[in-house]
Amino acid sequence: MKDREIIELLNKMTLEEKIGQMVQVAGDAFLQADINVTTGPLKNLELSEEMLYNVGSVLNVMGSKRVRKVQDEYLSKSRLKIPLLFMDDVINGYKIAFPIPIAQGCSWNVDVVRKIAQISAMESNIAGANVNFSPMVDLVRDARWGRVMESIEGEDPYLGQIYSKNIVQAYQGNNISQLGQIASCVKHIAAYGAVESGRDYNTVDMSEREFRQYYMPAYKAGIDANAEMLMTSFNIINGIPATINKWLIQDLVRKELGFKGVIISDYGAIEETIAHGASKDEKEAALNAINAGVDIDMMSRIYANYLKEICLENKEIENKVNESVLRILRLKNKLGLFENPYGNTDIEKEKKYIMNSDNLKEAKRLTQETFVLLKNENNILPLNKNRKICLIGPYMDNGAITGSWSMFSDRAKNNTILDIFRNRVKSENLSYAKGTEILRTEEINKILKADGTPTIHIDNEQEKEKQSIKEAKEIAKNSDIIVLTLGEHYKQSGEACSRSNINLPENQVELVNELYKLNKPIVVILFNGRPLSLNNIENKVDAILEVWFPGTTGAEAITEVIFGDVTPSGKLTMSFPQNAGQCPIYYNHYKTGRPHTHDFRYLSRYQDIPTQSLYPFGYGLSYCKFKYRNLQLNKKQIDKNTTIKVSVEIENASDYEGYEVVQLYIQDLYGSVVRPVKELKGFKKEYFKPHENKIIEFKIDIEMLKFWNEKLQYVAEKGEFKVYIGGDSVKTLEETFELV
Ligand code: BGC
Question: How crowded is residue 720: how many other Cβ atoms within 10 Å of its Cβ?
């Protein structure tokens, strides 16, 4: 359609029809044989049937058949036949579940992240998705928050910018109506990852300078990459819920960052402004949200039931409604929905593209780059398959390794590690036992209860657990090496999964303690959605391979890494704390007046644990042994027109081949505001053959030295800087230079 026709269409719409476009409901409503808004799934929303057939978009309906059915049902009753928009949460893949976003980020490989986004976009687009509620680019520093699993950037704004831009581009391509492209909805605006004490939906209060320095860059990068949509966050930000925060939406996002697309609230968030005490009732919530500039109300009745009344009282609000509806219609037009309301859904294409073998093969390769080798004493890994291996632990024969957001992929069909080990290791060399469950019933029931699922009970659970551990120990006695699969339950990380204790479950720790007594090498494969506190097992095991929730091809990918077909190359994007008491913990923190540099009481330190993290940002081992030397700068001074060339020599002193992530950090030694101890400003993921030597080069320019000053200007200040290069954020070579 021409833009002129869109405007004509808008002019034909009644106020009710316009408001309908600004309402999003769960698409299931249209799948009921006899749609009944008073008893059906939309009962709580209290929508009239008339409003239902005016709504502009639906949530999480997938599958060519279902999507077509919903669209047909809707269009059959809608007066102006404006097609529905289908929006979905394809967070780590559609049918092929990829590693969860925090894991993807640990690949430090933009190509990996792009490829995952492309396959996810293709699969979900064919299955009917027009918009994806992704990427989530909330910077996170607190492992207690369950949603760290969704954060692509972890604790780093530089990674955040790069990933955000690339994912948006991969989803959208050059034309979002084309096969395999979807509109991207960057979320959650803003600073959702900074909720107090890691408790979901909680408060955020921070200086604007801090927000701009750390939290804003990834959102901005998504906007600059032309993301079509943004989603507001649940939290308040500096006293006002993000969803009705005029400074955030109008001044920053619309005016300063120039965002022209559609802004949607998070699930029910407009209504929640009443619970926040920021709107006195539903009508005021509607007024606050439209005034702030929210175009679509996701899953609450507020816009549907109050916008009309508000518009009739105030003509100016109707203008705002018109602006919002125009944005929504334009998005539908860009997606080509007026010409073809089914988008790229197609049953034949579903058969051809979804879960196809090429993509599954690719998925395995991509997954392998997300694993982080945290420990490898005496080079116990890679494993020799001719040794007697005993596979133990709750994830040994469990395919539920796709994470809590992979709602469209079939967990039950995934291979398990045991399946793959059986193909790989001679039966006489392989023994196995579960040893223990993921969680004791007491723990699992806490989760199930909140889900409204019936709780479970096991008679004599304690004895059974003891017996099971004993059996595992017996079996392990006859092996040379124990491969222990441990981790969180997939429902322990994700939305509403905040935890105050981020240790491994007690029964799993108990299993480690018992196996440790056998005095055999133990390799841990760790499944989890957040940095865990590993202090209580770390010194009892020889190797730890962090595999997060690796997705559909996880078991295959893990086995190949464990047996050395592929060298692990992931690096952490979040610091692993010593324990939850250290949270929030992040590498790019400010300098204190009393740094913990030596043993003395009155320093910024803990009495009971070290100050530094257990595993730092950027850390990850390899089967290769990388040696860094000879850090050189081609000159020692830089000004606004010049650059410095930095080079470092790296040797792979091993017989293995593999990738190394070479990281460049900069520190501004003093400034008008206190500057962080180190900030990532560049990285390269380089492939090394056995014993290969390479010179890796970077360029430093003035842009890399800029920061937000007290007056909220983005500036670089003259003075001394340090540059650090290394394979993580702690072990680095360093040099100084000056900005003149
Ligand atoms: C989450 C969003 C998600 C939305 C729709 C909300 O609860 O916070 O990230 O996109 O639901 O499912």
Answer: 12
Is the pLDDT at 587 greater than 60? The verdict is yes
Per-residue pLDDT of 274-316, as tens digits, reads: 999 999 999 999 999 999 999 999 998 899 999 999 999 999 9
CATH of the domain at 683: 2.60.40.10
Residue 397 bears catalytic tag: no
Give Cβ neighbours of residue 539 (< 8 Å, ≥ 6 apart).
none
Please indicate, yes or no, if residue 85 is contained in any of the structural domains.
no
User: Of 546, 577, 608, at which residue does a domain stop?
Assistant: 577
**Whole-number Å distance between alpha carbons of 627 and 422:** 37
631-635-636-641 Cα dihedral, nearest 10 degrees: -130
One domain, residues 652 and 507: no
Select from 134, 148, 150, 266 the residue to mutate for testing ligand 1; criterion: most ligand atoms less than 8 Å from CB.
266
For residue 452, what are its two tokens? Answer: 């409204």
Q: Which atom of ligand 1 is nearest to the CA of 188?
A: 9
From the CA of 185, give the closest atom in ligand 1: 10
Regarding the beta carbon of 133 and ligand 1, being less than 6 Å apart is answered: yes
> CATH number of the domain that 446 lies in?
3.40.50.1700
Give distance in angstroms: CA of 3 to centre of ligand 1: 31
Question: Ligand 1 within 6 A of 88 CB?
Answer: no
- Please give the Cα distance from 59 to 89 (Å, whole number): 8
Identify the residue whose C-alpha is closest to ligand 1 atom 2. Answer: 266
Q: Do 715 and 572 fall within a single domain?
A: no
Residues 454, 536 share a domain: yes
Q: What confidence category does residue 46 fall into, taking pLDDT thresholds of 50, 70 and 90?
A: confident
What separation in Å is there between the alpha carbon of 76 and the centre of ligand 1? 29
Rg of the chain, C-alpha, whole Å: 27
pTM value > 0.90: yes
Residues 571 and 668 in one domain: no
| Ligand 1 atom with the shortest distance to the CA of 234 | 8
Q: Is the pLDDT of residue 41 over 70?
A: no
Q: How many domains is the chain built from?
A: 2
Residue 196 located in a structural domain: no
Q: What does pLDDT average to over the chain?
A: 96
Mean pLDDT in residue range 650-674: 98
CA distance 95 to 667: 43
| Residues 443 and 547 grouped into a single domain | yes
pLDDT in tens, 387-403: 999 999 999 999 999 99
- pLDDT per residue over 422-471, tens digit each? 999 999 999 999 999 999 999 999 888 888 888 899 999 999 999 999 99
Structural domain including 661 reads 626-739
Q: Encoding tokens for residue 166?
A: 């690339």
pLDDT of residue 726: 98
Q: Which residues pair with 645 in a beta bridge?
A: 699
Same domain, 405 and 540: yes
What's the 266 CA to ligand 1 centre distance in angstroms?
A: 6
Ligand 1 site-directed mutation target among 495, 497, 498, most atoms within 8 Å of CB: 495
| Domain termination site, one of 511, 543, 577 | 577
Query: Does 687 lie in the same domain as 544?
Result: no
Does residue 266 have its Cβ closer than 6 Å to ligand 1? yes
Residue 233 alpha carbon, nearest atom of ligand 1? 8
Q: Whose CA is nearest to atom 12 of ligand 1?
A: 89
Residue with CA at minimum distance from ligand 1 atom 7: 267
Question: Residue 720: inside a domain, yes or no?
Answer: yes
Banded pLDDT at 474 (limits 50, 70, 90): very high
Q: Is the CB of 510 under 6 A from ligand 1?
A: no
Rounded Cα–Cα distance for residues 22 and 255 (Å)? 22
Residue 177 lies in a domain: no
- Distance (Å) of CA 490 to CA 230, 376, 529, 661: 27, 26, 7, 29
Asked if 545 and 650 sit in the same domain, the reply is: no
- Helical spans, DSSP H, in 282-346: 282-292, 302-313, 315-334
Q: Which of 89, 266, 295, 668 is catalytic?
A: 266
